[in-house]
Amino acid sequence: MNSQKLPTPSANGNTALVVGSTGIAGSNLALKLIEKGWKVYGLARNPKSDMQGLSPIAANLLDKESLTSALTDVFPTHVFFTTWMRNDTEEENIRVNSTMIRNLLQVLSGKKCIKHVALVTGLKHYLGPFDSYAKGTLPETPLREEMPRLDLQNFYYAQEDEVYEAAASDGFTWNVHRPHTIIGKTIGNAMNMGTTLAVYASICKREGLPLIWPGSAEQWNGISDVTDAKILAEQLIWAATTPEAENEAFNITNGDVFRWKWLWPKIAQWFEIDFEGYNGTIRPLEMILNNKQSIWTAIVQDNGLTESNLDKLASAWHTDLDLGRPLEVMTDMSKSRNLGFTAYKSTKDSFFELFSQLRNDKIIP
After folding, report:
1. 362: CB partners within 8 A, 6+ apart
2. Nearest to 32 by CA among 333, 235, 336
3. pLDDT tens track for 208-220
4. Which of 138, 214, 219, 244 is such that its CA lies 20 to 30 A from the CA of 18?
5. Residue 18: C-alpha distances to residues 33, 76, 191, 282, 333 (Å)
6. What is the pTM assigned to this prediction?
7. How many angstroms separate the first and last alpha carbons of the chain?
8. Each residue of 65-102: pLDDT tens digit?
9. Contact assessment for residue 323 and residue 263, using Cβ atoms and an 8 Å cutoff
10. DSSP state letter for 245
């Protein structure tokens, strides 16, 4: 007997395929789509089946045979591609991540069912890929969608080109969404600043240490913004269902700006610990958390928490990448605002609501 949950019948005729449905962007998007009455399938290599209304699909995006078999009875009208795979070099990033999109769209092409494809990338579109991130000639902020591509190899560009080529061939509309750092709950995500900072603060509290700012002077003093995963989900759905927004790339952030020297003390206060700000040097979080697994194990045991593997919760390398940038970074949201997208979220609330959810779900003490 097949125990797989069937997707909720669609109230609007739309069927979504969320690719990367276990990730921070994909899981929050799937929840929002279900809430809005969509029929929703969630594709991942190891999909979760505990989301009411979601039909999980297990498939390997690098294996067309696996994809073809898994999607035999799936006819999505909308595809939301929210995943990627990190590799050792940018050449491999380009090869692997473009292949994943190409395979999926080729498998779906023969079904003649797709109306729209949305691709989630990020600010590396403007700042460069991992191996040359925020180096060389830095862009002027705020970052705007019309800025030209950098003269660098970048897997985001390769992903976009796969979508553009398939759209021209198959006649569907598209959007590209470029969030800043995404704040929201998921476990095992490769880029998860909110949960990383929550775990770090919990370790500091256990050890009686202050919350040490790990980043640069520019990030500490400069203006920044972030993207709540639920705000990203709202824009993805808005763009997919708004004719005026078709075939456009959009920045997406909460809609407010802040300075880390303002937010950092508030995060420390939430955890009831002291803090240290920028002291003249970068103090990478990856080095701070490198030998903290035993401390985290003790915290988990003493508080009955659900995840003992520190590496599944904290992505210190990515938090260091963001907070160590040698420039302030914020994005311009005028493009989608002018077309009617008005969703807004207080960044302080994004962090504090996430911390509360992590505590309620027994992820942090």
Report:
1. 303, 304, 305, 306
2. 235
3. 999 999 999 999 9
4. 244
5. 10, 10, 18, 38, 24
6. 0.93
7. 40
8. 999 999 999 999 999 999 999 899 999 999 999 999 99
9. no
10. G
Question: Cβ-count burial of 76 within 10 angstroms (0-12 exposed, 13-18 middle, 19+ buried)?
Answer: buried
If we measure between CA atoms, which residue out of 138, 189, 146, 152 comes closest to residue 354? 189
Sequence-distant (6+) residues with CB within 8 A of 225 are 180, 253, 254, 256, 257, 258, 329, 330, 331, 347
At residue 358's C-alpha, the angle toward residues 311 and 342, to 5°, is: 110
- Write the single-letter amino acid at 196: T
Q: Are strands 54-58 and 78-81 parallel, antiparallel or unpaired?
A: unpaired
Q: Which residues are the active-site residues?
A: 124, 156
| Mean pLDDT score across all residues of the chain | 93
Tokens 């796969």 belong to residue: 162
Owner of token pair 């021209």: 168
The residue assigned the tokens 């097949």 is 2
Give the confidence band of 134 by pLDDT, cuts at 50, 70, 90: low
Dihedral (C-alpha) 229, 217, 321, 226: value to the nearest 10 degrees? 10
